[in-house]
Design brief:
The protein is α+β, with helices and mostly antiparallel strands and 387 residues long. The chain is 50% helix and 15% strand. Strand 2 and strand 3 form a beta hairpin. Its cofactor is FAD.
């Protein structure tokens, strides 16, 4: 009996020595620093800021980016790291995604040399935190309808509007804010200490409790012309960052599924009912097999997308294949694993229900099932059905 369903198909043989080494380093960090504490952090509803700089030292922040103190790792290595982090907790993987895939990617891809030099090295070390302000109370799946507006006032920009569900905003040092202008959607770097900028954590969440999501209010926030991201015009800017984050989710959710599977497998092997382990019953074994097969297929899909990404061939609709399939599969596995734990599965002693609750958020953000279905429908038929 192996300890990983990936061994059913020899998944590790598809990875290079360097890729396995990266995965194992992140796994060791999760096991030593995150796993022993996550139930408490989740229960108390706190994000552990003490893990930020150790993550930076491990090269996890902006790890896919080149230069400016970033690790410059491959897409596959980034994906493997995301899976290991989310096996710990979706909220902790989300921190790495918001910092690296969203905020740092926006600066790295669309920023000026001065902006990159000022922010990226500190963000890679975890000494500065970024957030990504796109979603609004009335503009989630349709960011083109955002109401936040930036107007010119002399040499400055003045930004007014609101954002919602913005990860890390209350602890961030710099906010990437997307706003409409007279020339269309543009991106701006807004220091969070700027007058008129307010970030308020969203309370009473049933999901992502070891993570921070906020409401942002921008009340006549004045920034200089140099705050604009010079390379970002229209929705191509935020969508480039979103696709990077969505790619990480393809891997990350399978980490949550695998951790849920392992928890259920360990439990049914030691739990006895009617005189023998629960694992000895046919219905239990069928559930374990079905879960293992879906995990294997999900990781194979993630790896294929990673190889395409490293080759510069990954298309946006292919990311939707991975996000839609793997998020949907992962939440089903987490729920099934919880059921196999019986009543004990509703406590934080076991991970599956925590993962299932978190995956409700992950399945929703960076594109709902419906949005990714429509993206794929458009790819298949050539007919956009968004409206």
């Amino acid at each position: 009996m192996t300890d990983s369903p990936l061994d059913l198909i020899g998944f590790d043989s598809l990875l290079t020595d360097e890729e396995r080494a990266t995965r194992d380093r992140v796994r060791a960090f999760v096991d030593s620093d995150l796993r022993p504490n996550i139930a408490r952090w989740y229960d108390e509803g706190v994000f552990p800021r003490e893990i930020i700089q150790p993550m930076g030292a491990l090269g996890l922040l902006g790890m896919h980016l080149q230069g400016y103190g970033c690790a410059g790792r491959s897409a596959v290595e980034y994906g493997l790291a995301a899976a290991e982090l989310e096996a710990g907790d979706s909220g902790l993987r989300t921190f790495v995604s918001v910092q690296g895939s969203l905020a740092m990617t926006a600066i790295h891809t669309f920023g000026s040399e001065e902006q990159k030099t000022e922010w990226l090295p500190r963000m890679a070390r975890g000494e500065a935190i970024g957030c990504f302000g796109l979603t609004e109370p009335e503009a989630g799946s349709d960011p083109a309808s955002m109401r936040t507006f930036a107007r010119r006032d002399g040499d400055d920009w003045v930004i007014t509007g609101s954002k919602r569900w913005i990860g890390l905003a209350s602890i961030a040092d710099i906010a990437v804010i997307w706003a409409n202008t007279d020339a269309g959607i543009r991106g701006f770097l807004v220091p969070t200490g700027t007058p008129g900028f307010t970030a308020t954590p969203i309370a009473q969440k049933l999901s992502m409790r070891a993570s921070i999501q906020c409401d942002i209010v921008l009340d006549e926030v004045r920034v200089p012309a140099s705050a604009q991201l010079p390379g970002a015009e229209g929705l191509r800017g935020p969508f480039t960052c979103l696709n990077q984050a969505r790619y990480g989710i393809v891997w990350g959710v399978m980490g949550a599924a695998l951790d849920s599977y392992r928890a259920a497998l360990a439990y049914v092997q030691q739990r006895e009912v009617f005189g023998k382990p629960v694992a000895a019953y046919q219905l239990t074994q069928q559930k374990l097999v079905d879960m293992a097969l879906e995990i294997d297929k999900g990781f194979l899909l993630a790896l294929q997308l990673g190889r395409l990404k490293d080759a510069g061939q990954l298309q946006p609709h292919q990311i939707s294949v991975g996000k839609l399939n793997n998020a949907r599969v992962a939440i089903d596995i987490a729920r099934e694993a919880r059921a196999m734990l019986g009543g004990n599965g509703v406590t934080l002693e076991h991970s599956p229900l925590r993962h299932a609750n978190n995956l409700e958020s992950v399945r929703t953000y960076e594109g709902t099932d419906e949005v990714h279905t429509l993206i794929l429908g458009n790819a298949i038929t050539g007919i956009p059905a968004f409206r």
